[in-house]
């Protein structure tokens, strides 16, 4: 009886641990903290769209879209690796 109780406890604890890890891992795929590509914003502004429309298109907030107009332009693809010749 004690062995069955211990096995049930271990199984329940393992399942709970998997559930907690799974739910916490979902935030890793959230796009709410992703930066807005200012090149896309610039193109959509040139097409005559408002910041609200652009934010809706990009699933971003208006303040992130508005931040593209302030300051100098920056490349959002700084992590892109371009191989040298011969690769």
List low-confidence stretches.
none
Helix/strand order, N-terminal first: HHHH
How much is the radius of gyration in Å? 23 Å
Rough outline: elongated
Q: Taking all residues together, what is the mean pLDDT?
A: 76
- Helical/strand content category: mainly alpha
Q: Enumerate how many helices there are, as a single number.
A: 4
Largest pleated sheet: none
Strand fraction: under 5%
> What is the helix fraction of residues, given as a range?
40-55%
- Find the count of extended strands (DSSP E, 2+ residues): 0
Question: Your description of this structure?
Answer:
With 87 residues, the protein is mainly alpha-helical. It has a domain at 36-69. The chain has 4 helices and no strands. The longest helix has 24 residues, at 2-25.
Short summary of the structure?
This protein has helices at residues 2-25, 38-46, 51-58, 62-66. The protein contains four helices and no strands.
Write the layout of secondary structure elements.
Blueprint: H1 2-25, H2 38-46, H3 51-58, H4 62-66
Which terms would index this structure?
mainly alpha, elongated
